[in-house]
Specification:
about 100 residues, elongated
Length: about 100
């Protein structure tokens, strides 16, 4: 189970890095990459990832961060909230799944 946690966090961080690197591509291609990566990140961290999106969007709207800086800031926030949601909060609410390797 620990490997799944590491893989989850690495995938979310890689999506954030890919979003940031989308600025290196021409506008048409970069926007498609940015939209795809951000959409996948929001799906992987739904519903708590929505909080990270609102927070980052608020920082852009208020003028505190540029869009690129907000991606740098929001990526660890997405990873942290998603990790906490999927591996701590939801198992506490719904109980842990039975371990298939254990026989009774």
């Amino acid at each position: 189970m620990a490997l799944g946690r590491v893989v989850y966090v690495v995938v979310v961080i890689l999506l954030g890095v890919a979003s940031i690197s989308a600025n290196a591509f021409p506008m048409e291609t970069g926007l498609v990459i940015l939209f795809g990566c951000q959409s996948l990140m929001q799906v992987l961290t739904f519903p708590l990832g929505f909080i990270a999106s609102l927070f980052a969007g608020g920082l852009i709207y208020s003028g505190v961060f540029t869009p690129l800086e907000s991606l740098l800031f929001a990526t660890p926030l997405f990873a942290g909230l998603g990790y906490w949601q999927w591996f701590h909060l939801l198992p506490r609410i719904y109980g842990r799944a039975p371990d298939p390797t254990q026989t009774s």
